[in-house]
Amino acid sequence: MARQKLAKSAQEFDKRFDSGEDIHDLIDMSKAKIISHGKKVRLTLDVAESLVADIDEIRHRIGVDRGALIKVWLHERVRQEKTEKKSA
User: What is the pLDDT of residues 34-72, one digit of tens each?
Assistant: First the structure.
């Protein structure tokens, strides 16, 4: 089988991936890293129903799971706080 033509940009790569194209030939797996964040800990949060409704509206719009969205937001905020602490 002939090798696929490389994507000219990240946007083209994303478009081809999102359309379901087989992109395995476009990825150099020798540079891939597996990141292990350690043991997972379960958190239980009590939040206002209106906040959950707002989160659900956002997650439906972008097409992700509620828990995944909250994890991304938490990760981004922690990273931001660490960066601000280092520069202070």
Answer: 888 789 899 999 999 999 999 999 999 999 999 999 999
Residue type, 61: R
Residue 6 within a domain: no
Total structural domains within the chain:
1
Cα–Cα separations (whole angstroms), residue 66 to 19, 47, 51, 70: 24, 13, 12, 6
Task: Please tell me whether residue 10 adopts helix, strand or coil conformation.
Answer: helix
What is the C-alpha separation between 83 and 12, in angstroms, rounded? 31
**52, 37 contact by CB (below 8 A):** no
pTM of the full structure: 0.57
State the number of CA atoms in the 13 A half-sphere of 36 facing the CB. Answer: 2
> How many Å apart are CA 36 and CA 81, to the nearest integer?
21
To the nearest 10 degrees (0 to 180), the angle between helices 66-87 and 49-62 is 100
Residue 70 in any domain: the answer is yes
